[in-house]
Amino acid sequence: MQRPGQVVRCTAVGVGLAYTLVLYLAGIRLDMDLRRGLAYLPTLAAAALIAWDVWVWRWPLIWRATSRPRIHGLWSVALHPTAESHIPERGNRGPIRAYLVVTQTYWTISLRLFTVESSSVSRSFFWDGSHGTGTAWLTFIYDNTPMLRYQHRSGRHLGTCSLHPGNRRPTVIEGRYFTDRYTQGDMQLTFVSRETNAGSFKEAASAHAQAHDRGGT
Hints:
Strand order of the largest sheet: 1-2-3-4-5-6-7-8
Order of helices and strands: HHHHEEEEEEEEH
Oligomer: single chain
Number of helices: 5
Number of domains: 2
Mean pLDDT: 83
CATH architecture of the largest domain: Beta Barrel
Helix content: 25-40%
CATH topology of the largest domain: Lipocalin
Distance between the termini: 32 Å
């Protein structure tokens, strides 16, 4: 399934190209360079929006003028459930080791979290800059699916997570989570690398080890 941002970008380019073609054909008998030049503006505008979404907002001078933190990449995560959390018998009471894979553009973000027993994927999100720190905080809703061999004591559930970056290029992020199975807790994210290809806990742990061998986290 395509991410919404990809659909929006493809639609913007398609509409821009179609509009450019119509304007160009409509004025093809007119020897007016300016009018023909104007026919390309919709495509150029669509290309500029895509460039901003994917690349431009990350450029150093421009990035400093926005409140959007750059959290794209692989993060090592420690989850700390509260004592009041309704954790089933033989369940992990923490700290729980996990990895978070974040794929980010300016307007879209996708988050996948992996533990030894389950995986989660974000379903919706919003950035909040109303707290006045100068760096937007991220809140997202996620869908967690345990592996089949653990579902007898840990069922599928929905949760909400709030991440509070302290600056626009953080290496450590504090956060909180709440779930509809009456569990909650704190979480700490530690940046590993810009790697986003991990599709499981094992692959993420391997990427973490490789980053450590290269002198990373």
